[in-house]
Protein backbone atom coordinates (compact mmCIF):
# COMPACT_ATOMS: atom_id res chain seq x y z
CA UNK A 1 0.00 0.00 0.00
CA UNK A 2 2.84 2.40 0.85
CA UNK A 3 4.51 1.67 -2.47
CA UNK A 4 1.25 2.42 -4.33
CA UNK A 5 0.88 5.71 -2.47
CA UNK A 6 4.44 6.70 -3.27
CA UNK A 7 3.94 5.87 -6.96
CA UNK A 8 0.74 7.92 -7.09
CA UNK A 9 2.37 10.88 -5.37
CA UNK A 10 5.42 10.70 -7.66
CA UNK A 11 3.15 10.65 -10.73
CA UNK A 12 1.23 13.65 -9.41
CA UNK A 13 4.48 15.52 -8.79
CA UNK A 14 5.76 14.70 -12.29
CA UNK A 15 2.57 15.99 -13.88
CA UNK A 16 2.72 19.14 -11.77
CA UNK A 17 6.32 19.62 -12.66
CA UNK A 18 5.70 19.30 -16.43
CA UNK A 19 2.85 21.80 -16.37
CA UNK A 20 4.84 24.08 -14.04
CA UNK A 21 7.83 24.01 -16.37
CA UNK A 22 5.59 25.08 -19.23
CA UNK A 23 3.92 27.87 -17.17
CA UNK A 24 7.23 29.06 -15.73
CA UNK A 25 7.00 27.92 -12.07
CA UNK A 26 7.79 24.81 -10.08
CA UNK A 27 4.30 23.19 -9.64
CA UNK A 28 0.64 23.34 -8.45
CA UNK A 29 0.89 21.22 -5.33
CA UNK A 30 -1.41 18.21 -4.70
CA UNK A 31 -3.76 17.28 -7.60
CA UNK A 32 -7.60 17.04 -7.06
CA UNK A 33 -9.43 13.70 -7.33
CA UNK A 34 -11.68 12.91 -10.30
CA UNK A 35 -14.97 10.88 -10.26
CA UNK A 36 -16.75 8.79 -12.87
CA UNK A 37 -20.44 9.51 -12.17
CA UNK A 38 -21.79 6.99 -14.68
CA UNK A 39 -19.94 4.17 -12.94
CA UNK A 40 -21.19 5.32 -9.53
CA UNK A 41 -24.82 5.42 -10.75
CA UNK A 42 -24.52 1.97 -12.29
CA UNK A 43 -23.11 0.55 -9.08
CA UNK A 44 -25.91 2.01 -6.93
CA UNK A 45 -28.54 0.66 -9.34
CA UNK A 46 -27.10 -2.84 -9.10
CA UNK A 47 -26.99 -2.75 -5.29
CA UNK A 48 -30.62 -1.55 -5.15
CA UNK A 49 -31.74 -4.41 -7.40
CA UNK A 50 -29.86 -6.94 -5.29
CA UNK A 51 -31.41 -5.60 -2.06
CA UNK A 52 -34.94 -5.63 -3.46
CA UNK A 53 -34.48 -9.23 -4.60
CA UNK A 54 -33.30 -10.24 -1.13
CA UNK A 55 -36.31 -8.53 0.50
CA UNK A 56 -38.74 -10.29 -1.84
CA UNK A 57 -37.15 -13.66 -1.15
CA UNK A 58 -37.36 -13.09 2.62
CA UNK A 59 -41.04 -12.11 2.40
CA UNK A 60 -41.86 -15.20 0.36
CA UNK A 61 -40.15 -17.41 2.95
CA UNK A 62 -42.05 -15.72 5.80
CA UNK A 63 -45.35 -16.22 3.96
CA UNK A 64 -44.67 -19.89 3.43
CA UNK A 65 -43.79 -20.31 7.12
CA UNK A 66 -47.03 -18.60 8.22
CA UNK A 67 -49.13 -20.79 5.92
CA UNK A 68 -47.43 -23.94 7.21
CA UNK A 69 -47.92 -22.82 10.85
CA UNK A 70 -51.63 -22.05 10.32
CA UNK A 71 -52.20 -25.38 8.63
CA UNK A 72 -50.46 -27.25 11.48
CA UNK A 73 -52.52 -25.28 14.04
CA UNK A 74 -55.76 -26.05 12.26
CA UNK A 75 -54.84 -29.75 12.11
CA UNK A 76 -54.03 -29.79 15.84
CA UNK A 77 -57.23 -27.91 16.67
CA UNK A 78 -59.34 -30.31 14.58
CA UNK A 79 -57.69 -33.29 16.25
CA UNK A 80 -58.28 -31.82 19.72
CA UNK A 81 -61.89 -30.92 18.95
CA UNK A 82 -62.57 -34.38 17.58
CA UNK A 83 -60.97 -35.93 20.67
CA UNK A 84 -62.98 -33.83 23.07
CA UNK A 85 -66.18 -34.42 21.16
CA UNK A 86 -65.45 -38.17 21.18
CA UNK A 87 -64.99 -38.03 24.93
CA UNK A 88 -67.70 -35.54 25.89
CA UNK A 89 -70.23 -35.61 23.08
CA UNK A 90 -73.05 -38.09 22.68
CA UNK A 91 -72.32 -41.24 20.70
CA UNK A 92 -72.69 -40.89 16.96
CA UNK A 93 -72.32 -36.99 16.98
CA UNK A 94 -69.32 -36.31 14.71
CA UNK A 95 -69.54 -32.52 13.93
CA UNK A 96 -66.71 -31.15 11.81
CA UNK A 97 -64.74 -27.94 12.36
CA UNK A 98 -65.38 -26.99 8.74
CA UNK A 99 -69.06 -26.44 9.60
CA UNK A 100 -68.03 -24.05 12.40
CA UNK A 101 -65.84 -22.08 10.01
CA UNK A 102 -68.71 -21.82 7.55
CA UNK A 103 -71.00 -20.56 10.33
CA UNK A 104 -68.45 -17.88 11.26
CA UNK A 105 -68.14 -16.77 7.65
CA UNK A 106 -71.93 -16.58 7.32
CA UNK A 107 -72.10 -14.47 10.49
CA UNK A 108 -69.48 -12.04 9.17
CA UNK A 109 -71.34 -11.85 5.86
CA UNK A 110 -74.55 -11.07 7.73
CA UNK A 111 -72.75 -8.28 9.61
CA UNK A 112 -71.54 -6.87 6.30
CA UNK A 113 -74.99 -7.12 4.76
CA UNK A 114 -76.70 -5.41 7.70
CA UNK A 115 -76.38 -1.64 7.04
CA UNK A 116 -77.45 -0.74 10.57
CA UNK A 117 -74.22 -2.13 12.01
CA UNK A 118 -72.27 0.26 9.80
CA UNK A 119 -73.77 3.32 11.50
CA UNK A 120 -70.94 5.09 13.40
CA UNK A 121 -72.67 6.12 16.62
CA UNK A 122 -70.59 4.61 19.42
CA UNK A 123 -68.82 7.90 20.26
CA UNK A 124 -69.68 11.56 19.92
CA UNK A 125 -68.17 15.02 20.40
CA UNK A 126 -70.09 18.26 20.94
CA UNK A 127 -69.06 21.50 19.25
CA UNK A 128 -70.64 24.58 20.84
CA UNK A 129 -71.54 26.94 18.01
CA UNK A 130 -73.66 29.31 20.09
CA UNK A 131 -77.09 29.49 21.69
CA UNK A 132 -79.28 29.80 18.59
CA UNK A 133 -80.21 27.33 15.86
CA UNK A 134 -77.41 25.84 13.75
CA UNK A 135 -79.07 26.35 10.37
CA UNK A 136 -76.14 25.45 8.08
CA UNK A 137 -73.28 22.92 8.08
CA UNK A 138 -70.60 21.99 5.58
CA UNK A 139 -67.60 19.67 5.40
CA UNK A 140 -64.88 20.03 2.81
CA UNK A 141 -64.33 17.02 0.47
CA UNK A 142 -61.30 15.79 2.42
CA UNK A 143 -63.14 16.05 5.77
CA UNK A 144 -60.47 18.22 7.38
CA UNK A 145 -62.64 21.25 8.16
CA UNK A 146 -66.19 21.70 9.38
CA UNK A 147 -68.09 24.99 8.98
CA UNK A 148 -71.24 25.86 10.92
CA UNK A 149 -73.62 28.80 10.52
CA UNK A 150 -76.65 29.80 12.53
CA UNK A 151 -79.42 32.20 13.34
CA UNK A 152 -76.90 34.30 15.30
CA UNK A 153 -75.33 35.44 11.96
CA UNK A 154 -72.01 33.74 12.85
CA UNK A 155 -69.99 31.37 10.67
CA UNK A 156 -67.48 29.26 12.64
CA UNK A 157 -64.57 27.28 11.21
CA UNK A 158 -63.49 24.05 12.94
CA UNK A 159 -60.25 22.28 12.04
CA UNK A 160 -60.18 18.67 13.27
CA UNK A 161 -56.41 18.36 12.90
CA UNK A 162 -55.76 21.61 14.77
CA UNK A 163 -58.28 21.21 17.61
CA UNK A 164 -57.60 19.60 20.97
CA UNK A 165 -60.02 18.33 23.59
CA UNK A 166 -61.23 21.87 24.30
CA UNK A 167 -63.00 21.73 20.89
CA UNK A 168 -62.76 25.43 20.08
CA UNK A 169 -63.32 26.97 16.65
CA UNK A 170 -60.25 28.64 15.20
CA UNK A 171 -62.22 31.39 13.44
CA UNK A 172 -65.59 33.08 13.80
CA UNK A 173 -66.95 35.80 11.53
CA UNK A 174 -70.17 37.43 10.29
CA UNK A 175 -69.87 37.54 6.49
CA UNK A 176 -73.43 38.76 5.90
CA UNK A 177 -73.77 41.18 8.82
CA UNK A 178 -77.31 40.92 10.27
CA UNK A 179 -78.70 38.12 8.10
CA UNK A 180 -79.30 34.54 9.18
CA UNK A 181 -77.16 31.93 7.51
CA UNK A 182 -79.27 29.60 5.34
CA UNK A 183 -76.77 27.33 3.53
CA UNK A 184 -73.03 26.61 3.62
CA UNK A 185 -71.25 24.33 1.16
CA UNK A 186 -67.68 23.73 0.01
CA UNK A 187 -66.89 23.39 -3.67
CA UNK A 188 -65.75 20.06 -5.09
CA UNK A 189 -62.11 21.11 -4.73
CA UNK A 190 -62.62 22.48 -1.21
CA UNK A 191 -60.84 25.77 -1.89
CA UNK A 192 -63.90 28.06 -1.66
CA UNK A 193 -67.06 28.18 0.45
CA UNK A 194 -70.55 29.26 -0.65
CA UNK A 195 -72.49 31.31 1.93
CA UNK A 196 -76.25 31.77 1.39
CA UNK A 197 -77.93 34.07 3.90
CA UNK A 198 -81.18 35.95 4.33
CA UNK A 199 -80.22 38.78 1.99
CA UNK A 200 -80.40 38.78 -1.81
CA UNK A 201 -76.67 38.40 -2.46
CA UNK A 202 -74.77 35.14 -2.03
CA UNK A 203 -71.09 35.26 -1.10
CA UNK A 204 -68.11 33.04 -1.86
CA UNK A 205 -65.32 32.88 0.75
CA UNK A 206 -61.95 31.17 0.67
CA UNK A 207 -60.84 28.55 3.21
CA UNK A 208 -59.75 31.24 5.68
CA UNK A 209 -63.00 33.22 5.50
CA UNK A 210 -61.89 36.07 3.23
CA UNK A 211 -64.26 37.36 0.56
CA UNK A 212 -63.72 36.03 -2.98
CA UNK A 213 -66.86 37.29 -4.73
CA UNK A 214 -70.35 38.61 -4.01
CA UNK A 215 -73.27 38.17 -6.36
CA UNK A 216 -74.86 41.28 -7.78
CA UNK A 217 -78.31 42.40 -6.68
CA UNK A 218 -81.03 42.66 -9.31
CA UNK A 219 -83.43 45.49 -10.10
CA UNK A 220 -86.59 44.93 -8.04
CA UNK A 221 -88.71 47.23 -10.25
CA UNK A 222 -88.43 44.98 -13.32
CA UNK A 223 -91.39 42.62 -13.70
CA UNK A 224 -89.66 39.85 -15.67
CA UNK A 225 -87.04 38.35 -13.36
CA UNK A 226 -85.15 36.93 -16.35
CA UNK A 227 -84.16 40.46 -17.36
CA UNK A 228 -82.44 41.27 -14.06
CA UNK A 229 -78.81 40.46 -13.38
CA UNK A 230 -79.36 38.96 -9.93
CA UNK A 231 -81.82 38.09 -7.19
CA UNK A 232 -84.12 40.80 -5.84
CA UNK A 233 -85.43 39.05 -2.71
CA UNK A 234 -84.26 36.89 0.19
CA UNK A 235 -82.27 33.76 -0.68
CA UNK A 236 -83.48 30.35 0.44
CA UNK A 237 -80.80 27.84 -0.56
CA UNK A 238 -77.81 27.17 -2.78
CA UNK A 239 -75.28 24.51 -3.79
CA UNK A 240 -72.18 23.90 -5.94
CA UNK A 241 -72.05 22.02 -9.22
CA UNK A 242 -70.70 18.50 -8.58
CA UNK A 243 -68.40 18.54 -11.64
CA UNK A 244 -67.64 22.18 -12.53
CA UNK A 245 -65.76 23.85 -9.69
CA UNK A 246 -66.58 27.46 -10.70
CA UNK A 247 -70.38 27.08 -10.99
CA UNK A 248 -72.96 27.29 -8.22
CA UNK A 249 -76.71 27.77 -7.93
CA UNK A 250 -79.07 29.79 -5.71
CA UNK A 251 -82.83 30.08 -5.30
CA UNK A 252 -84.75 33.01 -3.92
CA UNK A 253 -88.11 34.44 -2.89
CA UNK A 254 -88.21 36.34 -6.18
CA UNK A 255 -89.35 33.06 -7.80
CA UNK A 256 -86.15 32.19 -9.68
CA UNK A 257 -83.34 29.65 -9.58
CA UNK A 258 -80.11 31.15 -10.92
CA UNK A 259 -76.73 29.65 -11.79
CA UNK A 260 -73.56 31.69 -11.31
CA UNK A 261 -69.88 31.63 -12.22
CA UNK A 262 -67.29 32.59 -9.62
CA UNK A 263 -65.27 34.49 -12.23
CA UNK A 264 -68.20 36.68 -13.38
CA UNK A 265 -69.96 38.23 -10.40
CA UNK A 266 -71.72 40.99 -12.36
CA UNK A 267 -74.38 38.73 -13.89
CA UNK A 268 -75.85 35.24 -13.55
CA UNK A 269 -75.29 32.49 -16.12
CA UNK A 270 -78.86 31.24 -16.55
CA UNK A 271 -82.31 31.61 -14.95
CA UNK A 272 -84.92 28.92 -14.19
CA UNK A 273 -88.43 30.11 -13.30
CA UNK A 274 -90.71 27.61 -11.54
CA UNK A 275 -94.38 27.92 -12.43
CA UNK A 276 -97.58 26.63 -10.88
CA UNK A 277 -100.29 24.72 -12.71
CA UNK A 278 -101.95 28.05 -13.63
CA UNK A 279 -98.63 29.45 -14.86
CA UNK A 280 -98.12 31.76 -11.91
CA UNK A 281 -94.86 32.46 -10.09
CA UNK A 282 -93.88 29.95 -7.39
CA UNK A 283 -91.22 30.46 -4.74
CA UNK A 284 -88.47 27.75 -4.66
CA UNK A 285 -87.43 26.77 -1.13
CA UNK A 286 -84.58 24.34 -1.90
CA UNK A 287 -82.50 23.42 -4.94
CA UNK A 288 -79.86 20.85 -5.86
CA UNK A 289 -77.90 19.34 -8.73
CA UNK A 290 -78.00 15.71 -9.74
CA UNK A 291 -74.84 13.67 -9.11
CA UNK A 292 -73.68 14.07 -12.72
CA UNK A 293 -74.62 17.77 -12.78
CA UNK A 294 -76.95 17.45 -15.77
CA UNK A 295 -80.22 18.05 -13.90
CA UNK A 296 -81.38 20.88 -11.65
CA UNK A 297 -84.15 20.17 -9.12
CA UNK A 298 -86.15 22.63 -7.05
CA UNK A 299 -88.71 22.08 -4.28
CA UNK A 300 -91.35 24.81 -4.36
CA UNK A 301 -93.76 26.37 -1.92
CA UNK A 302 -96.83 24.96 -3.67
CA UNK A 303 -95.65 21.42 -2.83
CA UNK A 304 -94.30 20.66 -6.31
CA UNK A 305 -90.88 19.33 -7.32
CA UNK A 306 -89.64 20.64 -10.67
CA UNK A 307 -86.58 19.32 -12.49
CA UNK A 308 -84.91 20.99 -15.49
CA UNK A 309 -82.18 20.02 -17.87
CA UNK A 310 -79.21 22.22 -16.97
CA UNK A 311 -78.83 23.41 -20.57
CA UNK A 312 -82.57 24.01 -21.19
CA UNK A 313 -84.02 26.57 -18.81
CA UNK A 314 -87.51 27.06 -20.30
CA UNK A 315 -89.51 23.86 -19.85
CA UNK A 316 -89.15 21.31 -17.08
CA UNK A 317 -87.92 17.82 -17.86
CA UNK A 318 -89.67 16.20 -14.86
CA UNK A 319 -92.50 17.74 -12.90
CA UNK A 320 -94.59 16.47 -9.99
CA UNK A 321 -97.36 18.90 -9.04
CA UNK A 322 -98.46 17.35 -5.75
CA UNK A 323 -95.26 15.95 -4.36
CA UNK A 324 -96.01 17.45 -0.93
CA UNK A 325 -98.86 19.34 0.69
CA UNK A 326 -99.76 22.69 -0.85
CA UNK A 327 -98.35 25.62 1.13
CA UNK A 328 -95.69 23.52 2.91
CA UNK A 329 -92.01 24.27 2.48
CA UNK A 330 -90.05 21.40 0.94
CA UNK A 331 -86.92 21.73 3.05
CA UNK A 332 -84.48 19.43 1.22
CA UNK A 333 -83.88 17.52 -2.00
CA UNK A 334 -81.08 14.96 -2.27
CA UNK A 335 -80.07 12.64 -5.13
CA UNK A 336 -78.71 9.18 -4.34
CA UNK A 337 -75.19 8.22 -5.32
CA UNK A 338 -76.46 6.14 -8.26
CA UNK A 339 -78.27 9.23 -9.60
CA UNK A 340 -81.64 7.53 -10.09
CA UNK A 341 -83.38 8.07 -6.75
CA UNK A 342 -84.43 11.44 -5.36
CA UNK A 343 -85.30 11.94 -1.67
CA UNK A 344 -87.46 14.89 -0.61
CA UNK A 345 -88.05 16.17 2.93
CA UNK A 346 -91.35 18.00 3.13
CA UNK A 347 -92.78 20.58 5.44
CA UNK A 348 -95.82 18.30 5.76
CA UNK A 349 -93.80 16.02 8.13
CA UNK A 350 -93.06 13.43 5.42
CA UNK A 351 -90.02 11.91 3.77
CA UNK A 352 -90.50 10.58 0.25
CA UNK A 353 -88.34 8.69 -2.23
CA UNK A 354 -88.84 9.14 -5.97
CA UNK A 355 -87.60 7.37 -9.07
CA UNK A 356 -86.97 10.14 -11.61
CA UNK A 357 -87.67 7.70 -14.45
CA UNK A 358 -91.25 7.38 -13.14
CA UNK A 359 -91.85 10.70 -11.44
CA UNK A 360 -95.61 10.63 -10.99
CA UNK A 361 -95.81 8.74 -7.70
CA UNK A 362 -93.30 8.27 -4.88
CA UNK A 363 -91.66 4.89 -4.53
CA UNK A 364 -91.83 5.02 -0.73
CA UNK A 365 -93.13 7.42 1.88
CA UNK A 366 -92.67 7.92 5.62
CA UNK A 367 -94.88 10.20 7.71
CA UNK A 368 -94.91 11.49 11.26
CA UNK A 369 -91.50 13.19 10.96
CA UNK A 370 -92.10 16.62 12.48
CA UNK A 371 -90.48 19.47 10.59
CA UNK A 372 -90.53 23.10 11.81
CA UNK A 373 -87.63 24.43 9.73
CA UNK A 374 -87.21 25.29 6.04
CA UNK A 375 -83.73 23.76 5.95
CA UNK A 376 -84.20 20.35 7.61
CA UNK A 377 -81.86 17.93 5.83
CA UNK A 378 -82.05 14.42 4.46
CA UNK A 379 -79.13 12.48 3.02
CA UNK A 380 -78.08 9.01 1.86
CA UNK A 381 -75.50 6.80 3.55
CA UNK A 382 -72.18 6.31 1.71
CA UNK A 383 -73.24 2.80 0.59
CA UNK A 384 -76.65 4.09 -0.63
CA UNK A 385 -78.55 1.60 1.57
CA UNK A 386 -79.85 3.98 4.25
CA UNK A 387 -81.63 7.31 4.26
CA UNK A 388 -81.12 9.77 7.12
CA UNK A 389 -83.13 12.77 8.32
CA UNK A 390 -83.76 14.78 11.48
CA UNK A 391 -86.95 15.53 13.41
CA UNK A 392 -88.10 18.73 15.08
CA UNK A 393 -89.60 19.21 18.54
CA UNK A 394 -90.97 22.14 20.45
CA UNK A 395 -88.99 23.56 23.32
CA UNK A 396 -88.86 21.18 26.31
CA UNK A 397 -91.34 18.77 24.73
CA UNK A 398 -89.07 15.87 23.85
CA UNK A 399 -85.81 15.11 22.07
CA UNK A 400 -84.83 15.66 18.47
CA UNK A 401 -83.78 12.48 16.70
CA UNK A 402 -81.75 11.27 13.77
CA UNK A 403 -83.93 8.70 12.02
CA UNK A 404 -82.54 6.05 9.66
CA UNK A 405 -84.66 4.33 6.98
CA UNK A 406 -83.82 1.36 4.83
CA UNK A 407 -83.81 2.56 1.24
CA UNK A 408 -85.51 -0.51 -0.27
CA UNK A 409 -88.06 -1.50 2.38
CA UNK A 410 -88.28 2.05 3.84
CA UNK A 411 -88.64 0.75 7.37
CA UNK A 412 -87.40 2.79 10.30
CA UNK A 413 -84.39 0.66 11.17
CA UNK A 414 -82.57 2.91 13.65
CA UNK A 415 -82.73 6.24 15.46
CA UNK A 416 -80.43 8.35 17.63
CA UNK A 417 -81.67 10.77 20.29
CA UNK A 418 -79.47 13.81 19.79
CA UNK A 419 -80.59 16.46 22.29
CA UNK A 420 -83.67 18.12 23.78
CA UNK A 421 -84.04 20.38 20.73
CA UNK A 422 -84.79 20.02 17.04
CA UNK A 423 -82.33 18.36 14.66
CA UNK A 424 -82.06 20.70 11.70
CA UNK A 425 -78.96 19.76 9.70
CA UNK A 426 -77.41 16.35 9.15
CA UNK A 427 -74.41 15.16 7.13
CA UNK A 428 -72.90 11.72 6.53
CA UNK A 429 -69.44 12.19 5.08
CA UNK A 430 -68.42 9.33 2.76
CA UNK A 431 -64.67 9.54 3.42
CA UNK A 432 -64.75 10.02 7.18
CA UNK A 433 -67.78 7.76 7.75
CA UNK A 434 -68.92 10.20 10.44
CA UNK A 435 -72.34 11.80 11.00
CA UNK A 436 -72.72 15.51 11.80
CA UNK A 437 -75.93 16.96 13.23
CA UNK A 438 -76.85 20.61 13.79
CA UNK A 439 -79.46 21.28 16.47
CA UNK A 440 -81.86 24.03 17.46
CA UNK A 441 -80.01 24.89 20.68
CA UNK A 442 -76.70 25.84 19.05
CA UNK A 443 -74.88 22.50 19.13
CA UNK A 444 -73.06 20.67 16.36
CA UNK A 445 -72.63 16.99 17.25
CA UNK A 446 -70.25 14.62 15.51
CA UNK A 447 -70.90 10.87 15.78
CA UNK A 448 -68.08 8.47 14.97
CA UNK A 449 -66.81 4.95 15.54
CA UNK A 450 -63.12 4.44 16.42
CA UNK A 451 -62.98 1.35 14.19
CA UNK A 452 -65.27 2.23 11.27
CA UNK A 453 -64.52 5.95 11.04
CA UNK A 454 -61.40 7.63 9.72
CA UNK A 455 -59.68 10.86 10.80
CA UNK A 456 -62.09 13.73 11.51
CA UNK A 457 -63.15 13.74 15.16
CA UNK A 458 -60.67 10.99 15.97
CA UNK A 459 -57.80 13.44 15.46
CA UNK A 460 -58.89 15.99 18.07
CA UNK A 461 -60.14 13.73 20.89
CA UNK A 462 -56.69 12.20 21.38
CA UNK A 463 -55.01 15.58 21.88
CA UNK A 464 -54.81 16.76 25.47
CA UNK A 465 -55.97 20.25 26.26
CA UNK A 466 -53.26 22.86 26.14
CA UNK A 467 -52.17 24.35 29.44
CA UNK A 468 -52.70 28.02 30.01
CA UNK A 469 -49.74 30.32 30.07
CA UNK A 470 -48.13 31.15 33.41
CA UNK A 471 -48.93 34.83 33.05
CA UNK A 472 -52.61 34.02 32.73
CA UNK A 473 -52.68 32.03 35.97
CA UNK A 474 -51.55 34.93 38.19
CA UNK A 475 -54.37 35.89 40.52
CA UNK A 476 -52.90 39.30 41.37
CA UNK A 477 -50.50 41.52 39.48
CA UNK A 478 -47.89 43.30 41.57
CA UNK A 479 -47.13 46.95 40.81
CA UNK A 480 -43.46 47.69 41.39
CA UNK A 481 -42.86 51.45 41.73
CA UNK A 482 -39.51 52.82 40.58
CA UNK A 483 -37.17 54.43 43.16
CA UNK A 484 -39.10 52.80 46.01
CA UNK A 485 -35.98 51.40 47.65
CA UNK A 486 -34.40 53.37 50.51
CA UNK A 487 -31.21 53.94 48.53
CA UNK A 488 -33.16 56.01 45.98
CA UNK A 489 -35.13 58.08 48.51
CA UNK A 490 -34.28 61.69 49.35
CA UNK A 491 -32.62 62.31 52.69
CA UNK A 492 -35.05 63.30 55.45
CA UNK A 493 -34.73 66.88 56.68
CA UNK A 494 -33.81 67.20 60.33
CA UNK A 495 -35.38 70.66 60.80
CA UNK A 496 -38.61 71.91 59.29
CA UNK A 497 -37.46 75.56 59.05
CA UNK A 498 -35.02 74.87 56.22
CA UNK A 499 -37.68 72.86 54.38
CA UNK A 500 -40.16 75.76 54.70
CA UNK A 501 -37.57 78.17 53.33
CA UNK A 502 -37.01 75.92 50.34
CA UNK A 503 -40.73 75.62 49.74
CA UNK A 504 -41.07 79.40 49.95
CA UNK A 505 -38.55 79.82 47.15
CA UNK A 506 -40.32 77.26 45.00
CA UNK A 507 -43.08 79.15 43.06
CA UNK A 508 -45.22 76.02 42.62
CA UNK A 509 -45.21 74.99 46.25
CA UNK A 510 -45.69 78.51 47.57
CA UNK A 511 -48.47 79.28 45.04
CA UNK A 512 -46.81 82.58 44.13
CA UNK A 513 -49.00 84.71 41.85
CA UNK A 514 -47.59 85.76 38.51
CA UNK A 515 -46.06 89.25 38.57
CA UNK A 516 -47.30 91.93 36.17
CA UNK A 517 -45.64 92.00 32.78
CA UNK A 518 -43.17 94.79 32.22
CA UNK A 519 -42.34 95.93 28.71
CA UNK A 520 -44.03 94.82 25.48
CA UNK A 521 -44.87 91.40 26.87
CA UNK A 522 -43.49 87.87 26.90
CA UNK A 523 -44.62 84.28 27.04
CA UNK A 524 -47.88 84.96 25.20
CA UNK A 525 -48.90 87.74 27.62
CA UNK A 526 -49.28 91.40 26.69
CA UNK A 527 -48.27 93.99 29.26
CA UNK A 528 -51.01 95.79 31.20
CA UNK A 529 -53.68 94.79 28.71
CA UNK A 530 -54.99 91.45 29.87
CA UNK A 531 -53.51 88.01 29.66
CA UNK A 532 -53.68 87.41 25.91
CA UNK A 533 -53.39 89.23 22.61
CA UNK A 534 -57.08 88.83 21.88
CA UNK A 535 -58.03 90.64 25.07
CA UNK A 536 -55.67 93.47 24.10
CA UNK A 537 -57.31 93.85 20.69
CA UNK A 538 -60.80 93.76 22.14
CA UNK A 539 -59.86 96.41 24.67
CA UNK A 540 -58.51 98.75 22.01
CA UNK A 541 -61.61 98.30 19.87
CA UNK A 542 -63.78 99.20 22.80
CA UNK A 543 -61.92 102.51 23.28
CA UNK A 544 -63.43 103.98 20.11
CA UNK A 545 -66.54 105.67 21.49
CA UNK A 546 -67.46 107.86 18.52
CA UNK A 547 -71.19 108.33 18.07
CA UNK A 548 -72.23 108.07 14.42
CA UNK A 549 -75.91 108.26 15.10
CA UNK A 550 -76.17 111.72 13.36
CA UNK A 551 -74.54 111.41 9.90
CA UNK A 552 -74.60 115.18 9.28
CA UNK A 553 -72.57 115.91 12.36
CA UNK A 554 -70.22 113.08 11.54
CA UNK A 555 -69.46 114.63 8.14
CA UNK A 556 -69.17 118.21 9.35
CA UNK A 557 -66.81 117.13 12.09
CA UNK A 558 -63.99 117.10 9.54
CA UNK A 559 -65.16 120.13 7.52
CA UNK A 560 -62.98 122.72 9.34
CA UNK A 561 -59.82 120.63 8.99
CA UNK A 562 -60.55 119.96 5.30
CA UNK A 563 -61.04 123.64 4.52
CA UNK A 564 -57.92 124.74 6.36
CA UNK A 565 -55.62 122.01 5.10
CA UNK A 566 -56.95 120.74 1.76
CA UNK A 567 -54.91 117.83 0.55
CA UNK A 568 -56.82 115.26 -1.56
CA UNK A 569 -59.84 116.63 -3.42
CA UNK A 570 -59.90 120.41 -2.92
CA UNK A 571 -56.58 121.35 -4.66
CA UNK A 572 -57.63 119.59 -7.87
CA UNK A 573 -60.97 121.43 -8.11
CA UNK A 574 -59.83 124.72 -6.53
CA UNK A 575 -60.82 126.89 -9.49
CA UNK A 576 -63.92 125.04 -10.63
CA UNK A 577 -65.34 123.72 -7.39
CA UNK A 578 -68.38 125.68 -6.12
CA UNK A 579 -68.75 126.48 -2.52
CA UNK A 580 -70.72 123.84 -0.67
CA UNK A 581 -74.02 124.90 0.78
CA UNK A 582 -75.40 122.80 3.59
CA UNK A 583 -78.95 122.78 4.74
CA UNK A 584 -79.68 124.39 8.03
CA UNK A 585 -81.21 122.46 10.87
CA UNK A 586 -84.99 122.74 10.98
CA UNK A 587 -87.49 122.34 13.76
CA UNK A 588 -88.56 118.99 12.38
CA UNK A 589 -85.07 117.61 12.87
CA UNK A 590 -85.05 118.87 16.41
CA UNK A 591 -88.44 117.24 17.06
CA UNK A 592 -87.20 114.03 15.48
CA UNK A 593 -84.20 114.09 17.77
CA UNK A 594 -86.48 114.48 20.73
CA UNK A 595 -88.51 111.34 19.82
CA UNK A 596 -87.84 108.24 21.94
CA UNK A 597 -85.63 105.53 20.61
CA UNK A 598 -88.37 102.98 20.02
CA UNK A 599 -90.25 105.43 17.69
CA UNK A 600 -87.28 106.21 15.48
CA UNK A 601 -87.17 104.55 12.07
CA UNK A 602 -84.58 101.89 11.81
CA UNK A 603 -82.21 102.39 8.88
From TrEMBL:
Disordered: annotated span: 1-21, 52-118, 490-529, 575-603
Segments forming a coiled coil: none
Family of this protein: Belongs to the WD repeat GAD-1 family.
Keyword Nucleotide-binding: no
WD repeat ranges per the UniProt record: 127-159, 228-270, 289-309, 333-358
Keywords: Repeat, WD repeat
Cellular component terms (Gene Ontology): nucleus; site of double-strand break
Taxonomic superkingdom: Eukaryota
Acidic residues bias locations: 97-114, 582-594
Biased composition (Polar residues): 72-83
A family per Pfam: WD40
Compositional bias ranges of the Basic and acidic residues kind: 1-11, 52-64, 490-514
Lineage: Eukaryota, Metazoa, Chordata, Craniata, Vertebrata
Name used for this protein in its record: WD repeat-containing protein 70
